[in-house]
Amino acid sequence: MEPYREALTDTKYGSLWLDQDDRPEPLAPLTKDENCQLLIVGGGFTGLWAALQAKERMPDCDIILIESTAIGDGASGRNGGMLHASLTHGANNADHHFPGEKDRIGQLGRRNLKELLESLERYGIDARYENVGSMTVATDESQVASLRGAYTRRKAAGADVVWFDQDEIQQAVNSPTYQAGLWSRGGQDGLVDPARLCWGLKAAALSLGVRVFEDTPLMSVSPEGTGMRAVCAHGTVHSDKILVATNAFPSPFRPIRKSVIPIWDYQLATEPLTPAQLAAIRWGETRHSVSNEAEMFHYYRMTQDNRITWGGGGSVCYYYGSRTDPGVADDRGRFERLSKEFFETFPQLEGLRFSHRWGGIIASSTRFCMVPGVAYDSRVSWAVGYTGLGVGASRFGARVGLELLGYQPSEILDLQFVRKRALNWPPEPLRWAGVTLTRHAMANADAHGGKRGLWLKLLDRLHVGFAC
After folding, report:
1. Which of 260, 390, 276, 381 is nearest to 318 (CA)?
2. How many Å separate Cα 366 from the centre of its chain?
3. Helix, strand or coil for residue 131?
4. Alpha carbons 59 and 48: distance in angstroms, whole number
5. Which neighbouring-strand residues pair with 359?
6. How confident is the model over 52-79, as pLDDT tens digits?
């Protein structure tokens, strides 16, 4: 058996983060009709941050939060736990989609992250935060040039960034594939345990009086007088307003379904590395997250018990018809590809086994960042589509959702970032064809030194997708 296949023997299917002994017991589902001022639909990062911020702004506000399964069971409990200040997948993407707002969005992102960390301290949330920054590595010459340009610009702007040439990067994190690296070590970017963050936010919201019902799927939503009516499996919630935080999962609102699509992402987690294995890769000292400068990039990190979680790359995909059912979650071929790519990056770790494998959906918008919206005369709002960078940005998305409902609105509602409508995804079969063509074009660019073909250049001109 090939070593990368053997490494998957006896792996457990399920998120490493959710597989912890101190996972809290689920709360009871909704079993009767209820009334409230604000209903929040979704128990991931956005919904939890919305509940907390709403209570902080309006302590007397009566809030109900419903979650179809358990708090953190969606993307919020199975991501990489990489905490960034960026709200838009980087300054270039902000400038591309929201001209003239790059600096303002950057300021808001840094403020948002500062307030997020202050909330962890205030409510005693042990999210296992590590202030280690992040590193981007180059694996071909075109990526080296791109990364060097980014370093020059950011250094000139006063950022705390460190450049590594080929010899230096392999001393910092030992991979024969690395040709250069850029460590962003300033600010408060770092790592968290995403499940513990969810569970801590849940406890904080409960302590402030938020009523939380798990195992409560939403069936339908409709206007009712001056308020809203939300029908659930075993009860109905009558509310003044609703904040929808379902992200990639099916939504009752057509504008949400048109603005985001479910992208499937897969991850692996290794068993804890031995001291010898840690010494072989040298990464255990700095412990920053790592991603590569490719179009189809990998993202990976160290955990506090010295495992490596590894995701992204060529396994990321979209299924025809926007499939969200779990039938494609445990795809052996995709995990084998991830494993093979892992050992190509760290061949000295051959013999290391993976303990966990998991897959699930994230919401992607055509602008690669959060898309807000309102309906029913601002009685319903949402913030969705973080496209894989929602650990920090989801708190800001929750703030936007609350302000769009009229809860203490501020000047952020005047930003293009909030007002500008994202280009909708086309219907099937154009949706599948477009995403598949883009995915192949991105992989082709990676195979040809980063050279963007005609299709990617066309998307750039249309301001669709990610601006590298």
Report:
1. 260
2. 15
3. coil
4. 15
5. 266
6. 999 999 999 999 999 999 999 999 999 9
Cα dihedral 167, 172, 178, 182 sign: negative
- Tell me, rounded to whole angstroms, the distance of Cα 148 from its chain centroid: 26
**Residues forming beta bridges with residue 230, ordered by sequence position:** 221, 237
Q: Are β-strands 218-224 and 298-302 bridged in parallel, bridged antiparallel, or unpaired?
A: unpaired
Residues listed for the chain? 468
Closest CA to 284 of 127, 165, 174: 174
Sheet with strand 161-164: strands edge to edge: 12-13, 354-364, 261-270, 308-312, 298-302, 289-292, 134-138, 180-184, 161-164
Q: How, if at all, do strands 161-164 and 134-138 pair?
A: unpaired
Average predicted confidence (pLDDT) for the chain: 95
SS3 category, 26? coil
Mean per-residue pLDDT, 146-164: 95
- Cα–Cα distance for residue pair 102/449, rounded to 1 Å: 28
Write the pLDDT tens digit of every residue in 436-454: 999 999 989 888 888 889 9
Burial of 170 (0-12, 13-18, 19+ CB in 10 A): middle
Given the DSSP bridges, would you call strands 218-224 and 190-191 parallel, antiparallel or unpaired? Answer: unpaired
Q: Phi first, then psi: what are they for 94, rounded to 5°?
A: -65, -45
pLDDT tens, position by position, 31-54? 999 999 999 999 999 999 999 999
What is the CATH T-level fold of the domain 3-16+129-191+261-362, as seen in this structure?
Answer: D-Amino Acid Oxidase; Chain A, domain 2 (3.30.9)
CA end-to-end span of the chain: 39
Q: How far is CA 340 from CA 26, 267, 337, 370, 387, in A?
A: 37, 13, 5, 32, 25
Q: How far apart are CA 383 and CA 433, in angstroms?
A: 26
Say how far apart CA 118 and CA 464 lie, in whole Å.
35
Q: Is the C-alpha dihedral spanning 166, 172, 175, 181 positive or negative? A: negative
**Which segments within 153-217 are labelled E, that is strand?**
161-164, 180-184, 190-191, 211-213
Given a contact cutoff of 8 angstroms between Cβ atoms, the answer to whether 320 and 427 are in contact is no
Q: Which helix (H) or strand (E) holds 140?
A: none
Closest Cα to residue 43, out of 24, 28, 65, 64? 65
Rounded-to-integer distance, Cα 403 and Cα 315, Å:
37
Task: Return d(Cα 9, Cα 6) in angstroms, integer.
Answer: 5
Residues ≥6 apart with Cβ < 8 Å to 96: 463, 467
From CA 186, how far away is CA 171, in angstroms rounded? Answer: 21
Distance of alpha carbon 415 from alpha carbon 430, whole angstroms: 31
Q: Please indicate whether residue 157 or residue 55 has the higher confidence score (pLDDT).
A: 55
- C-beta atoms surrounding 440 within 10 Å: 12
Q: Which of 335, 328, 394 has the alpha carbon at shortest distance from 361?
A: 328
